[in-house]
Design a protein that fits this description.
The complex is a heterotrimer.
Chain A: H1 5-8, E1 9-20, H2 59-71, E2 75-76, E3 83-86, E4 96-99, E5 106-115, E6 118-131, E7 135-139, E8 150-154, E9 161-167, H3 174-191, E10 203-213, E11 223-228, H4 231-250, E12 258-263, E13 268-273, E14 284-285, H5 296-304, H6 310-321, H7 325-331, H8 335-348, H9 352-370, H10 381-392, H11 398-411, H12 415-422, H13 430-443, H14 445-452, H15 459-469, H16 476-487
Parallel strand pairs in A: 11-12
Antiparallel strand pairs in A: 1-9, 1-10, 2-5, 3-4, 3-14, 5-6, 6-9, 7-8, 10-11, 12-13
Helix pairs in contact in A: 3-4, 8-9, 8-10, 10-11, 13-15, 13-16, 15-16
Chain B: H1 5-14, H2 21-38, H3 73-77, E1 83-84, E2 87-91
Antiparallel strand pairs in B: 1-2
Chain C: H1 9-17, H2 23-41, E1 44-47, H3 49-64, E2 76-80, H4 107-114, E3 118-123, H5 158-163, E4 170-174, H6 181-187, E5 190-193, E6 214-218, H7 221-231, E7 261-265, H8 276-291, E8 295-299, H9 304-322, H10 341-352, H11 355-368, H12 374-397, E9 400-404, H13 420-424, H14 431-436, E10 439-447, E11 454-461, H15 466-480
Parallel strand pairs in C: 2-3, 2-4, 7-8, 7-9
Antiparallel strand pairs in C: 1-3, 4-6, 5-6, 5-10, 9-11, 10-11
Helix pairs in contact in C: 2-3, 9-11, 9-12
The chains are: A alpha+beta, B mainly alpha, C alpha/beta.
Bound molecules: magnesium ion and zinc ion (ZN).
Magnesium ion (MG) binds at residues 18, 130, 164 of chain A.
């Protein structure tokens, strides 16, 4: 009996995620946390590592980190402190990074992820707070560091509060990794502590992936994959790497511990450096700062400030709105989207499903074209609710409503105003419709005869004629009824 | 206690000090002497004590999350040995190759 | 004007307020004195004559309007070149910062400026405050005004040398393991190491962050207490700064020491290398304290014998990290050699740092590196806990502790530079105070009968008990009459 490759090997993935916090000021100084701006204009003696400057920790950054730890079901440390991580790098102003070492803010948490693989818990090893580095631009050659002539360093980003989240090696496939990052991103987004934009680097994912024979006692050689700039890339990079490692083992090769770079264009990874000489970071407690001992009240206050997290939100949506998993997944991608939906449902007062349909079938198409999020579009939740009510009340037809929503999307106008301006009012006045109905009956004696003989299918033709005369503004249900009663 | 030459080289690399041959040789002797003296603390029984990183028992010293004034680009770069396009110029970035 | 040169800051404050002298005249007199003595003692790394005169003029204008920034508005001051001064080069006594012009000032400097003190200049020190003789300054040593063949002590050698040459009434140094108290002892003036966290470290170039503390030098205890009060107190820019009000140290400073319990450290009595002349003067000082009404109590602090060992692991370890930022990228020196970043940084650091700094960086890097951390750095920090524990127990029995400030008087140039360990032992009496974060003061207790050079008495107080420390020091000083005796000044 042959064993398939997927049973022969097992993949182990651990993820390390860095998230830039969206505080007002930097981690250890008062420079604003802000993207853009001319190089080296959001810097001060502290974040430039100037002689004599001292770091003073940002209270909000610490609270945000506690919040993240709480949301990831971590134990929140009653004692935590900063260490110095010493190594030379030109975009790191002090040549040490202030980070947390053996006393991080959060430990022993988990994230529950769901997908085709089912539902599983991925352990969170730690959540700690540190500072970001500056940014180098490599000049000469291809623009990559390897063949550049020199580099230019901008320290605007240096000192931005950075939270590092380290998962346990509980992930066993690219699919699980993708699901984990998606869920983590949704959790962080709901906490409103970061922009979590992978493309812009405010959320950065590194993966450690290894392959071993199923059941082998030791993990395989650990390969670190870098440069995955979207959740999609995480999946692609790990899929590629998983296959590459399995094939290498099949071919009798020995895998080595190395760091590999993911190439977005080719979808492949390539070795960045194989010789993993042991870094000696010489960690020691940061003498410029005193430790932290948050009391129970502080920790409780942070826990109490947690918003509804994506998992509870999804459960609630299923329960009270009766939506499908797929719908829920889409409507809860961000808390802003979910909030928008709930506001619309509340304004509407009717069946949530209808609102969901309008969002998913119509609004999303428009949003995708313009690359916007639901919450930054021009349509307000109450406006969508008003539109759906107009259809319910028979004021306009469903078809007309689709035209109206396109206009609303462009202008942000109320549906009533659009209907008015475009003259789209559905005619439900019996007198007006009767005139058209009588005309159509008079003009189509043959069709009328067929109906009288019981050929009901012809009724639709007559309805169409009436609608045409009314330029689409007649209420089709009323037309139907009138035709029937006059013919029979 | 004796520091060997290999350790001197390793430590000099970690510390980014391009010491001359002569300096390395002298450093080996001096480090041995000083660390021998410093090693006196090995005599002490310190098992029951926590390390002291801070001599004062302060806790939770933080600043409010309020943004303030920055340096101008000119001020930031004023002390730079070399700058270009508003940034600090550094020679080719290479990885520390280890030993 | 020359009679002004030896007046205390307190006396100068009165002279200014009585309009006997103007701030500009004062600054001019001190700068003229610098012209005279500095070629001999080399206390200055940079004179800031223009700033001094400008600030003095502003002080005089304020006074003319009937306003003053403080009672000391217009009194000159000078800083060890470790304090960042906005727009004025701050070199740390190192080639690596030869051209460094800070865009900001240290909190100490800002507070002194706010009090109206006029800055005469930046004074010499051992490179990166590492040393006990000022011989490690990259810009040449400072000389002891008592004997130009001898060191002024260090690392803050510049301020006490200038003060005891009549060049300035007071000045600021920093003390990481004795760098204020030891040079104060060797130059015959008063030097204070305040409680860790009392004075903001913001803008003071770091040597060993958990030990560094700024401290005043002066010719009288009162002046030292006043200068400390002008700058001490909580600073939000320093996360290790103590958030407490600073008491007025002059309140009750005259109350004497009747009934005070003063500890004498048993383990220090037979310290190896303690000069007989120093021992004699210090023993006499103990007797004097007793005569003034204090009760002397012998205390045992066995861990003090290990303090130097632990210190020479902790301080270099922190220094190795603090000094990593001097890499040739953002400020001051960059080596011309090296076409890649690793080579450029390694060359810059080799060219920019002197031998003592390199030695400490190597020691500290070693003490922190993998495999050695627990045995060295970790154990040294536990030794620190032991020192604190023993001191806490001692303070149950005594109010203050006394000892010599330095095992010897000012030594000759070159006497200790060849043997780093012998230089390190200069700090044997002062280091435990830094390790515990306590307060300490060195005050003159006479001239050694061996060589006619000043001897310093150290008085140690528990953290934040500067008031008791100043009271005892003042009582001793008044009784000895050293500060007021013109015969007890160097003939320079
Ligand atoms: Mg990190
Ligand atoms: Zn800053």
């Amino acid at each position: 009996m042959s064993t398939t490759a997927s049973e022969m090997y097992e993949t182990t993935v651990g993820l390390e995620i860095h998230v830039e916090l969206s505080t007002n000021s930097k981690m250890f100084c008062a420079c604003p946390v802000d993207f853009g701006g001319d190089p080296n204009t959001r810097v001060c003696p502290v974040c430039l590592g100037m002689p004599g400057s001292l770091p003073v920790p940002n209270q909000m950054a610490i609270e945000y980190t506690m919040k993240i730890a709480a949301a990831l079901h971590c134990d929140i440390a009653r004692f935590h402190e900063f260490h110095r991580k010493n190594y030379f790098y030109p975009d790191m102003p002090k040549n040490y990074q202030i980070s947390q070492y053996d006393h991080p803010i959060g430990t022993k948490g988990y994230v529950e992820v769901t997908g085709d693989f089912g539902t599983k818990r991925v352990g969170i090893n730690r959540v700690h707070l540190e500072e970001d580095t500056g940014k180098s631009t490599h000049v000469g050659g291809s623009g990559r560091i390897a063949d550049s002539d020199h580099s230019l360093v901008d320290f605007n980003r240096a000192g931005t509060p950075l939270v590092e989240i380290v998962s346990e090696p509980d992930i066993t496939s690219a699919e699980e990794a993708r699901a984990f990052v998606t869920e983590l991103r949704a959790i962080l987004e709901s906490l409103d502590v970061s922009d979590v934009r992978m493309e812009e680097g405010s959320m950065r994912v590194d993966a450690n992936i290894s392959t071993r024979l199923t059941g082998a006692p030791e993990y395989g050689a650990k390969v670190e994959v870098k440069n995955m700039n979207s959740i999609r890339s995480v999946g692609r990079a790990l899929e590629f790497e998983e296959k590459r490692q399995r094939k290498a083992l099949d071919d009798g090769e020995t895998l080595v511990q190395e760091t590999r770079h993911f190439d977005e264009k080719t979808g492949t990874t390539s070795s960045l450096r194989t010789k993993e000489f042991a870094f000696d970071y010489r960690y020691f407690p940061e003498p410029d700062m005193v430790p932290f001992e948050p009391d129970q009240a502080w920790i409780e206050r942070v826990r109490g400030s947690l918003p509804e997290l994506p998992a509870s939100k999804r459960a609630r949506f299923a329960e009270i709105y009766g939506l499908s998993d797929k719908e829920i997944q889409t409507l809860t991608t961000t808390s802003a989207t979910a909030g928008w939906f709930e506001e619309a449902v509340a304004a509407y007062g009717g069946e949530a499903k209808k609102i969901s349909n309008w969002i998913l079938a119509d609004l999303y198409g428009l949003l995708n074209e313009s690359g916007q999020e639901l919450s930054d579009g021009k349509i307000a939740p109450a406006q969508l609710a008003a539109l759906v009510k107009l259809v319910d009340d028979g004021a306009i037809s469903g078809k007309q409503a689709k035209e109206v929503i396109t206009v609303m999307f462009e202008t942000g106008d109320d549906p009533a105003k659009v209907v008015e301006e475009r003259g789209l009012k559905q005619v439900s006045d019996t007198g007006a419709i009767e005139v058209f109905v009588d005309e159509v009956i008079a003009e189509n004696p043959d069709a009328v005869e067929k109906i009288r003989e019981g050929k009901d299918g012809t009724l639709g033709f007559l309805v169409g004629q009436v609608m045409k005369k009314s330029r689409g503004q007649a209420n089709p249900a009323m037309v139907n009824d009138l035709l029937r009663s006059k013919i029979n | 206690m004796s520091i060997d030459r290999k350790t001197v080289d390793h430590v000099a690399r970690l510390a980014r000090l391009d010491l001359s041959e002569e300096e390395r040789t002298r450093m080996q002797g001096e480090m041995t002497a000083i660390l021998t003296h410093a090693g006196k603390i090995q005599e002490l029984d310190l098992d029951d004590l926590e390390p002291t990183s801070h001599a004062i028992p302060l806790r939770n010293h933080m600043r409010p999350d309020v943004a303030g004034r920055c340096l101008t680009q000119e001020e930031a770069l004023a002390n730079a040995p070399k700058a270009e396009d508003g940034r600090f110029w550094v020679p080719r970035i290479v990885e520390d190759s280890g030993e | 004007m020359s009679e002004l040169l030896w007046k205390s800051a307190k006396e100068l404050s009165e002279a200014l307020s009585n309009k006997e002298v103007s701030a500009v005249e004062l600054a001019q007199a001190m700068l003229a004195r610098a012209d005279e003595v500095d070629p001999k003692i080399h206390a200055f790394l940079k004179r800031t004559d223009e700033i001094a005169l400008e600030q003095a003029k502003a002080a005089d204008e304020r006074r003319a309007r009937g306003e003053t920034s403080s009672a000391f508005d217009g009194v000159p001051v000078a800083y060890k070149d470790i304090f960042c001064t906005k727009g004025v080069t701050t070199t740390m006594g190192s080639k690596i910062l030869e051209t460094f012009v800070p865009p900001y000032s240290a909190t100490v400097v800002e507070r002194c400026e706010a009090a109206g003190l006029t800055m005469l200049g930046k004074l010499n020190l051992d490179e990166f405050a590492m040393g006990s003789s000022t011989e490690w300054s990259a810009y040449g040593p400072t000389k002891n005004p008592w004997d130009l063949e001898r060191v002024p002590g260090g690392s803050s050698g510049g301020p006490p040398a200038l003060i005891m040459s009549g060049g300035v009434p007071w000045g600021w140094g920093t003390d990481t393991g004795g760098s204020v108290r030891q040079p104060a002892a060797l130059c015959g003036c008063v030097g204070v190491k305040p409680t860790y966290g009392l004075v903001s470290r913001y803008g003071i170039i770091a040597f060993a962050s958990s030990l560094d503390q700024a401290g005043p030098f002066a010719r009288t205890v009162e002046d030292a207490a006043i200068l400390l009060m002008l700058a001490a107190g909580h600073d939000p820019m320093d996360a290790t700064s103590i958030p407490q009000e600073v008491p007025n140290y002059l309140d009750g400073i005259d109350a004497g020491i009747q009934g005070m319990k003063i500890g004498i450290v048993k383990e220090f009595t037979d310290t190896e290398g303690l000069q007989p002349g120093v021992k004699q003067r210090v023993d006499e000082a103990y007797t004097r304290l007793e005569r003034l009404g204090a009760e002397l109590v012998e205390i045992s602090l066995p861990s003090f014998q290990y303090a130097i060992s632990a210190y020479y692991l902790v301080a270099p370890a922190e220094a190795s990290s603090n000094l990593a930022r001097y890499d040739g990228v953002r400020y001051a020196l960059r080596s011309d050699e090296g076409t890649d970043i690793v080579k450029m940084t390694s060359r810059t650091r080799d060219e920019g740092f002197g031998p003592e700094v390199k030695r400490r960086i190597m020691l500290g890097t070693y003490a922190l590196s993998a495999g050695y951390y627990d045995a060295y750095y970790g154990k040294a920090q536990k030794t620190r806990s032991l020192i604190i524990k023993e001191l806490d127990a001692a303070y149950e029995k005594v109010d203050l502790i006394v000892s010599p400030s330095s095992p010897d008087t000012a030594f000759k140039f070159g006497a200790k530079t060849a043997d780093p360990l012998s230089m390190y032992l200069s700090d044997i009496f002062t280091v435990p105070v830094n390790m515990a974060g306590n307060a300490g003061i060195s005050i003159p207790c006479g001239l050694s009968p061996d060589d006619n050079l000043p001897v310093g008495l150290q008085i140690i107080a528990k953290s934040l008990d500067e008031k008791t420390m100043f009271r005892a020091a003042h009582a001793f000083e008044q009784d000895l009459g050293f500060a007021s005796d013109p015969g007890m000044r160097p003939q320079i």
